[in-house]
Design a protein that fits this description.
Helix content is 68%, strand content 10%. It contains 7 helices and 6 strands; from the N terminus they run H-H-H-E-E-E-H-H-H-H-E-E-E. The protein has a 4-stranded mixed beta sheet, with helices on one face. It has a two-stranded antiparallel sheet with strand order 4-5. 15% of the residues are buried.
Length: 234
């Protein structure tokens, strides 16, 4: 048990580091791009400054018409400055939006990868049973709140395996048969217990559930792959 927990913890920490570094990288790249862009944008007063230079360098522009032209150009420069200021605001908003979008995409991507790893780990380790309730009176087993209706023989087999699991015991086929029939294990055949296991798996129906729930330990016997604290019998 400590192995999967440690692995999951390390994976979570690694994922958090990836997210943190990714967010820092995104903010740094977009921040550098914003600084470069704003430094290279023309000043809002660039047009007015240029017009002023033209009239300063040409002393002959002193007539009424020239003055009116100067006023028109000055008004145009003021309008240009307002447009350029609004462009700066739009660019800033777009950069902020892009940063938020990229950060969210990174978080979602890492979350999806983490979920896929968790699902793969679950598939590799087998079924995760949080509760196993065996009701002999109703011939029913509740596995993670999923109800399975079993035969009397299957309930007896599952109950025997559950009792052995709570005692941390592994039952051979002969021991399982002897425990259910009440006879000494030496008088029982290994095949009889194996037959009971097969019938239990057939009764459960779901091939994946049955194979992962009842473990066959080579040269030792059978046991439930369930935490003993999760088992209850009524």
């Amino acid at each position: 048990m400590p192995g999967p927990i440690t692995s999951a913890t390390e994976s979570l920490r690694a994922g958090n580091r990836v997210v943190a570094f990714g967010i820092i990288a995104i903010v740094a790249i977009l921040g550098a791009a914003a600084v470069f862009l704003f430094l290279n944008l023309p000043s809002a007063d660039a047009f007015n400054t240029r017009v002023e230079q033209i009239f300063t360098q040409n002393n002959a522009l002193t007539t009424g018409t020239d003055i009116q032209l100067l006023e028109i150009l000055a008004q145009s420069g003021t309008a240009f400055a307002g447009v350029l200021a609004s462009y700066r605001e739009v660019i800033f908003v777009l950069l902020v939006f892009s940063t938020a979008l990229l950060v969210a995409s990174l978080v979602f991507l890492v979350t999806i990868i983490s979920q896929n790893r968790r699902i793969s780990a679950i598939q590799a380790t087998g079924i995760q049973v949080s509760s196993l309730l065996i009701s002999r009176a109703e011939n029913t087993v509740y596995l993670n709140n999923l109800e399975f209706k079993l035969t009397l023989a299957a309930i007896e087999t599952l109950a025997a395996l559950a009792e052995a699991r709570m005692d941390d015991d592994v039952l051979s086929g002969a021991e399982l048969e002897g425990l259910i029939s009440g006879r000494p294990a030496s008088d029982c055949e290994e095949a009889a217990g194996a037959t009971r296991i097969k019938r239990l798996r057939d009764t459960l129906g779901n091939q994946i559930v049955s194979e992962l729930l009842v473990k066959n330990i080579a040269r030792r016997g059978y046991m439930l792959a369930v935490d003993k604290d999760a088992i209850r019998m009524v």
